[in-house]
Amino acid sequence: MLQKKKGLASFFMATLIVTLIINIIIAWVVRSASKEIDYGTFLTMIQNKQIESVKIEANRLLITPKVNENSSASDKKIYYTGALNDPQLVERLHTAGVKFSTSVKDIQSPIVTFILSWILPFAMFYFLGSFIMKSLGKKMGGGGVMSFGKSNAKVYIEKKTGVTFNDVAGQEEAKESLNEIVDFLHKPSKYTDIGAKLPKGALLVGPPGTGKTLLAKAVAGEANVPFFSLSGSDFVEMFVGVGASRVRDLFQQAEKNAPCIVFIDEIDAIGKSRDSKLGGNDEREQTLNQLLAEMDGFDSSKAVVILAATNRPEILDKALLRPGRFDRRVIVDKPDLKGREEILKVHGKNVKLDSRVNLGEIALATAGAAGADLANMVNEAALRAVRMGRDVVRQDDLFEAVETIIAGKEKKDRIMTEEEKSLVAFHEVGHALAAALQKQTQPVHKITIIPRTMGALGYTMQMPEKEKFLVSKDELIEQIIVLLAGRAAEEVIFNKATTGASNDIERATGLARQMVTMYGMSNKFGMMGLESVQNRYLDGRPVQTCSTETSTEVDREVLQIINSCYEKAVSLLKDNREALCKISSHLLDKETIMGDEFMEILNSI
Ligand code: ADP
Ligand code: MG
Ligand code: ZN
């Protein structure tokens, strides 16, 4: 508050100085444009008929001289002289034929002059200045330049979030755990009477886009209480101590508004473990300490529930996770098949769907997609329907949207040579045949050689018949064979290798490596774990836990799997050369063929 007063005073001073300077400048301009003469000179000028007109003001006379041919521009000055008490003045001017006048507004009282030249500009500058400062302050996200110590939590308070559990699909377990919190906010006494303490906080953990933020809003919506939401990064500021004071403010406001929900999104921004080796960050640590203190400080009977979300739970400070703080962990993982279908239904309600649309099929094709991806797909499909001039969204719009998100947009204008095109066709049919000829692979859904913006020159889309949670060793081997069959087809038909197989190779090698290091599927290492996954909810990158010698051995094992799979792929395609050629030429004609068409040709051979 001290800062605020100080700021106000200096702002007042600045305005005053500006007004002063402006008045001085005006006075200077006026003076340099006119010249004072004495009364005698004035009378002489009248007699010599050198005067064009005279303006009579309250205490001076403004004299405009006549312009004669030989006077230069600089002579066009206006003269003035003090007004003497000269009763004959009017008489003199009249006989000399000088125009003369006076105006009402010139005879001002000094008070009016003072107001006009001092108070008015001052007030104008003051309002202009404070307006600019206010809008600047808003842009900076704070409560104004002069009050950066204050919380901006106010900005984010939502009386009603308008989101309920019905808007969140496919997260039944998470909803169940949060239901208790909703009930508590409705009727705290039910719990406090029996002596039960409710968790002060719940931590929503899961990959990006699975609906953590949405769930927190839904809890507030269900409980019908105000929702204070802040992102972890909102606390982190340039000035040490600002974050801590924001935390303090936030909790003060929350207690005033109880029952309510305080939601800290992306809490890892401030909740990072304090024992990091890279040197501490004073501001962040102070903010975290304040948060810990506040969470201890308020008593849970007040019905303030703190929710937080993160996708990196492993880096959070242990102190945050101990009982009495965020002691409840709600996992919000990627949805399964049923969950995906439900999410599609929720978002499908917002668009006009054709009656033949089968959302279950779309859900099957989108394994691994999070809620945000699915919401995006429905919207992409609607956009495509509009582009096609339709007024309802059809199944093919939805499929195209899925492909757009997986592989990018179609690039029909890319010109490829006939040779390249046929190479791509054989490559893709190689994948498709390897998939169709093995027993435990997913059926082929679509083969296309229309290039996509994300680099693919063509692709084969497989679709599972049902969702599986476990994959066997045989299935993994078959998957690797399918991935390598693209290059195998190039080799079998054209006897050459191209760069087109790089993505296949990367994926096949990744699978083979996981078999050896994580799934215990190699003869050499058996059940030994050689890699562990970090950042499970983000990229899930594996980190080696074995020695370098073992790592060399691992590479050898992986190479062996890849090599034997590639040999199998080559022999599979050699045995089915006729089908490979026939389907490829059909694909070259049509550019895209669907799974059933593909199977028809294959079965007819
Ligand atoms: P997170 O916070 O987990 O990264 P969000 O809650 O911000 O993800 O989700 C982003 C958007 O994705 C939501 O606004 C919603 O439209 C959609 N979405 C995500 N998960 C779901 C879900 N389970 N049900 C319905 N919509 C979802
Ligand atoms: Mg979020
Ligand atoms: Zn390929």
TrEMBL record:
<keyword id="KW-0479">Metal-binding</keyword>
<comment type="subunit">
    <text>Homohexamer.</text>
</comment>
<feature type="active site">
    <location>
        <position position="428"/>
    </location>
</feature>
<dbReference type="InterPro" id="IPR037219">
    <property type="entry name" value="Peptidase_M41-like"/>
</dbReference>
<dbReference type="GO" id="GO:0016887">
    <property type="term" value="F:ATP hydrolysis activity"/>
</dbReference>
<keyword id="KW-0812">Transmembrane</keyword>
<dbReference type="GO" id="GO:0006508">
    <property type="term" value="P:proteolysis"/>
</dbReference>
<comment type="function">
    <text>Acts as a processive, ATP-dependent zinc metallopeptidase for both cytoplasmic and membrane proteins. Plays a role in the quality control of integral membrane proteins.</text>
</comment>
<feature type="transmembrane region" description="Helical">
    <location>
        <begin position="111"/>
        <end position="132"/>
    </location>
</feature>
<dbReference type="InterPro" id="IPR000642">
    <property type="entry name" value="Peptidase_M41"/>
</dbReference>
<feature type="binding site">
    <location>
        <position position="427"/>
    </location>
    <ligand>
        <name>Zn(2+)</name>
    </ligand>
</feature>
<dbReference type="GO" id="GO:0008270">
    <property type="term" value="F:zinc ion binding"/>
</dbReference>
<keyword id="KW-1133">Transmembrane helix</keyword>
<dbReference type="GO" id="GO:0004222">
    <property type="term" value="F:metalloendopeptidase activity"/>
</dbReference>
<feature type="binding site">
    <location>
        <position position="504"/>
    </location>
    <ligand>
        <name>Zn(2+)</name>
    </ligand>
</feature>
<feature type="transmembrane region" description="Helical">
    <location>
        <begin position="7"/>
        <end position="30"/>
    </location>
</feature>
<keyword id="KW-0472">Membrane</keyword>
<feature type="domain" description="AAA+ ATPase">
    <location>
        <begin position="198"/>
        <end position="336"/>
    </location>
</feature>
<feature type="binding site">
    <location>
        <position position="431"/>
    </location>
    <ligand>
        <name>Zn(2+)</name>
    </ligand>
</feature>
<dbReference type="Pfam" id="PF00004">
    <property type="entry name" value="AAA"/>
</dbReference>
<dbReference type="InterPro" id="IPR027417">
    <property type="entry name" value="P-loop_NTPase"/>
</dbReference>
<dbReference type="Pfam" id="PF06480">
    <property type="entry name" value="FtsH_ext"/>
</dbReference>
<keyword id="KW-0547">Nucleotide-binding</keyword>
<dbReference type="InterPro" id="IPR011546">
    <property type="entry name" value="Pept_M41_FtsH_extracell"/>
</dbReference>
<dbReference type="GO" id="GO:0005886">
    <property type="term" value="C:plasma membrane"/>
</dbReference>
<dbReference type="InterPro" id="IPR003960">
    <property type="entry name" value="ATPase_AAA_CS"/>
</dbReference>
<keyword id="KW-1003">Cell membrane</keyword>
<protein>
    <recommendedName>
        <fullName>ATP-dependent zinc metalloprotease FtsH</fullName>
        <ecNumber>3.4.24.-</ecNumber>
    </recommendedName>
</protein>
<comment type="similarity">
    <text>In the central section; belongs to the AAA ATPase family.</text>
</comment>
<keyword id="KW-0862">Zinc</keyword>
<dbReference type="InterPro" id="IPR041569">
    <property type="entry name" value="AAA_lid_3"/>
</dbReference>
<dbReference type="GO" id="GO:0005524">
    <property type="term" value="F:ATP binding"/>
</dbReference>
<dbReference type="InterPro" id="IPR003593">
    <property type="entry name" value="AAA+_ATPase"/>
</dbReference>
<keyword id="KW-0482">Metalloprotease</keyword>
<keyword id="KW-0645">Protease</keyword>
<keyword id="KW-0067">ATP-binding</keyword>
<dbReference type="InterPro" id="IPR005936">
    <property type="entry name" value="FtsH"/>
</dbReference>
<comment type="similarity">
    <text>In the C-terminal section; belongs to the peptidase M41 family.</text>
</comment>
<dbReference type="Pfam" id="PF17862">
    <property type="entry name" value="AAA_lid_3"/>
</dbReference>
<dbReference type="InterPro" id="IPR003959">
    <property type="entry name" value="ATPase_AAA_core"/>
</dbReference>
<dbReference type="GO" id="GO:0030163">
    <property type="term" value="P:protein catabolic process"/>
</dbReference>
<keyword id="KW-0378">Hydrolase</keyword>
